[in-house]
Write a structure and sequence with these properties.
The chain has about 750 residues and is of the alpha+beta class. The protein folds into 4 domains: about 1-15 and about 25-200, Glutaredoxin; about 210-445, no CATH class; about 445-630, Glycosyltransferase, CATH 1.50.10.20; about 645-760, Sandwich (Immunoglobulin-like), CATH 2.60.40. Helix content is about 45%, strand content about 15%. It has 27 helices and 32 strands. The strands form 11 sheets. The chain has a 5-stranded mixed β-sheet, sandwiched between helices. The radius of gyration is 28 Å and the shape is globular.
Length: about 750
């Protein structure tokens, strides 16, 4: 990090006298407004719990948005961008030692516009600037620290900085901005061009079986043969990769591949990365043996691991009792700590910190642990856990198994069923003691894509564990996606209670919702219709023939130097990979349009998939499923892309005044096209609506709806087609009227919503 700071210092090679007050030009009205905006900390009203953690900092933090970016341009100041998340340990450290410090705050407030971003609210910003940080420094992580031009282009990037290094960086960056600004601008331009190259689509044929097999074998070769997982040091679950290895091994009957996945899951469950008392998995382990974790618990990790455990369980062999215990424990952790039962939504994470102690909610002093274990269960605790071993984390114990369940059962002369019955009694006793202590804080925002994954996980767990309660949770969570996240015809990315962030959904949000609709079936026709309509919305908003497939962020997110079109699979599959999987499931019901969209989701990333399989595991899984089903490996684009058809070419609007006060609005639709009725069939569909100022319209009479079959008869929606008349009663003369509508083709493609003027004759 010091070397990277030195690189910036090298830009400062001459001394320039500071401007005197008399030499400063008089501030414009825009400058004055910008100075008022950045003169105080704006985070107290943020929806994000992570942002609100910084609301009392002396730094004049701003939220990312058009007004803040305009202020930076008006003041001609560089932007100090800090990106993190609620359960990030080093984010808390940097907040405490640097952003709460008055000297750092003075440097930031004087020379920069300081912006704080929750990466979980804006994954597109996180992806763009993380790509920049990796380019600039060779490594990334959180908290992410980036210096930007006033227009948003990055010229320096890093991660955590101790107080003194941060202060030095700010001083030298402010000086460089005054003295060598052209060099910083050239550096930023170079970074943006480098990122642009990563976003360019590369045409390649559909992946072959040989391509997928090479990638599969390369990934299997990276699995630790003793402890499972990938690599020999710090280990993350990498659940999308494990899922690909499991599914592809099942398709081939590959016992070695299945054993590699089971070994990884077994060692994780036996290790400290699994919370032995409260259930659920921590974010990652700091060692090869999975013993000492970083203690945050994420919804997305636990949802995907619960789903994977549930799918592996029927073929778990000797690990079945252990996997069943861990799956049940993970589900119960999610319901106990991350479930909002009143809304049927899941929260995002629990924190790593309790007070100032990392893992304070999970580590035990030897004395406290011994006093908490019931005497009758002490032999069981000694047989399974490291309670008699030396402390393994700063004088405390992080619990992990010291022998396999089979070895422990033999040692105690009990069956496996009896062993786990005792383990559960032991867990309950320790959980009572733990609950009396201060608990890790919860990030109580709800993210659409993670909630969809949790709904699927509970559905699969209900099957594997034969638990009807989990099925009910899954159905309620699926239905809550529709109720909580769909607003005025499109989904949003994040909600918190009844608050809704003004952040449109990403491709991942919509694709995960579609996957939940396709996988969680209560045999209702409404569920099938919902899935079809979500798929139509998804292809309308995110499929782009110019990008050779799906883009990750819709075109109406304009506040980045470049649009984020391509995101790799990470801890969660990318939106493109989720879309491929979901559309493939839906297409098997007979929709040619969805089949084409799934095809191009895979083919559009074929070059990247072949070149970097570890970054595209979920997409590999979709490609492997496609090839196993012997589907065609050459298909045209979906028939219509939203860029190739204009709403006004399929929907004509005419209007004339009635004899009495009012207006008749006539909609004429081209053959094969319709608009949604008012009211629409589902809350997430955009109802056709005439709007006007509050004083202009008393009532609108909409015609009766027609039941329209869409997507090859897979679903029916209430809509209008042909020629229909809407009657606007008591319209104030000369007040403007507008028609809000979304035109959809009967074969399953919807155009972007449109707002069209209504001009009476």
């Amino acid at each position: 990090m010091i070397c990277r700071i030195a690189t910036l210092l090298a830009l400062v090679s001459v001394s320039v006298s500071a401007c005197t007050r008399d030499s400063l030009p008089e501030a414009s009205s825009a400058d004055k407004a910008a100075r008022r905006l950045v003169a105080s900390n704006q985070l107290a009203g943020a929806l994000s719990p992570y942002l609100r953690l910084h609301a009392d900092n002396p730094v004049h933090w701003q939220m990312w948005g058009a007004e803040t970016l305009a202020a930076a341009r008006s003041l001609d100041r560089p932007i100090f961008l800090s990106i993190g998340y609620f359960s990030c340990y080093w984010c808390h450290v940097m907040e405490r030692e640097s952003f709460a410090a008055t000297d750092v705050a003075e440097l930031l407030n004087r020379s920069f516009v300081a912006i704080k971003v929750d990466r979980e609210e804006r994954p597109d910003l996180d992806e763009f600037y993380m790509t920049a940080v990796n380019y600039l420094s060779g490594r990334g992580g959180w908290p992410m620290t980036v210096l930007l031009l006033p227009t948003g282009e990055p010229f320096w990037g890093g991660t955590y900085l101790p107080h003194d290094q941060l202060a030095q960086l700010l001083q030298q960056a402010a000086q460089a901005w005054q003295q060598r600004r052209a060099d910083l601008e050239a550096q930023a331009q170079q970074v943006v061009l480098a990122i642009a190259r990563t976003q360019q689509p590369v045409d390649a044929p559909f992946p072959t079986s040989a391509t997928v097999e090479r990638a599969r074998r390369a990934l299997l070769a990276q699995v630790d043969p003793q402890w499972g997982g990938f690599g020999s040091g710090m280990k993350f679950p990498m659940t999308p990769t494990l899922r690909f290895l499991w599914e592809s091994a099942l398709r081939r009957g590959d016992q070695a591949g299945m054993k590699a996945v089971r070994r990884t899951l077994r060692q994780m469950i036996l290790g400290g990365i699994y919370d032995q008392v409260g259930g659920g998995f921590h974010r990652y382990a700091t060692d090869r043996k999975w013993e000492i974790p970083h203690f945050e618990k994420m919804l997305y990790d636990n949802a995907q691991l619960l789903w994977l455990l549930s799918d592996v369980l029927p073929q778990a062999g000797d690990d079945a009792a252990l996997f069943r215990w861990a799956a049940h424990g993970t589900a119960e952790f999610l319901l106990r700590r991350l479930y909002d039962a009143s809304r049927h939504l899941f929260w995002s994470a629990t924190d790593a910190l309790v007070g100032d102690v990392e893992g304070g909610g999970y580590r035990w002093s030897p004395a406290a642990l011994n006093s908490a274990i019931p005497a009758a269960l002490r032999p069981t605790a000694a047989a399974i856990w490291n309670i008699d071993g030396p402390p393994n984390l700063d004088g405390d114990l992080v619990l992990h198994w010291v022998r396999t369940p089979q070895e422990a059962a033999r040692r105690l002369h009990v069956s496996l069923d009896e062993l786990f019955a005792r383990v559960e009694r032991l867990q309950r006793a320790l959980l009572v003691v733990r609950s009396e202590k201060r608990q890790p804080a919860v990030d109580d925002k709800s993210v659409a894509v993670w909630n969809a994954l949790a709904a699927i996980a509970f559905w699969r767990a209900g099957d594997a564990l034969e638990n009807p309660l989990y099925h009910l949770v899954a159905v309620d969570a699926r239905d809550a996606l529709l109720r909580a996240f769909w607003r005025r015809g499109r989904p949003v990315h994040v909600v918190r209670g009844d608050e809704v962030a003004a952040i449109p959904a990403t491709l991942a949000d919509g694709a995960a919702m579609l996957l939940a609709a396709a996988m969680i079936s209560d045999e209702s026709e409404a569920t099938t219709d919902w899935g079809v309509e979500v798929a139509r919305w998804l292809t309308a908003q995110f499929f782009d023939a110019d990008a050779k497939g799906f883009v990750e962020v819709a075109a109406d997110m304009p506040d980045l130097p470049l649009p984020v079109q391509r995101i790799r699979d990470g801890a969660v599959p990318s939106g493109n990979s989720l879309a491929a999987q979901a559309l493939l499931l839906l297409a098997r019901a007979g929709s040619d349009e969805f089949l084409r969209a799934a095809f191009w989701a895979i083919r559009g990333r074929a070059a990247e998939l072949a070149g970097s399989p570890t970054a595209h595991a979920a997409l590999l899984d979709a490609a492997d499923a496609w090839l196993a089903a012997e589907l065609p490996t050459a298909l045209p684009y979906p028939a219509r892309s939203p860029r190739s058809v204009d709403t006004q070419s399929v929907l004509q609007v005419t209007a004339h005044h009635r004899a009495q006060q009012g207006v008749e609005v006539v909609l004429t639709l081209a053959d094969g096209w319709h608009v949604n009725a008012n009211p629409a069939s589902y809350p997430f569909l955009i109802a056709t609506e005439v709007t006007a100022p509050a004083t202009a319209v008393v009532a609108v009479r909409y015609p009766p709806a027609e039941a329209i079959e869409v997507a090859g008869g897979q679903a029916r929606v209430a809509g209008y087609r042909g020629s229909v008349t809407l009657v606007v009663e008591r319209a104030v003369p000369d007040e403007p009227l507008w028609l809000r509508a979304q035109a959809c083709s009967d074969d399953g493609t919807c155009l972007a919503p449109a707002l069209l003027p209504v001009r009476p004759n």
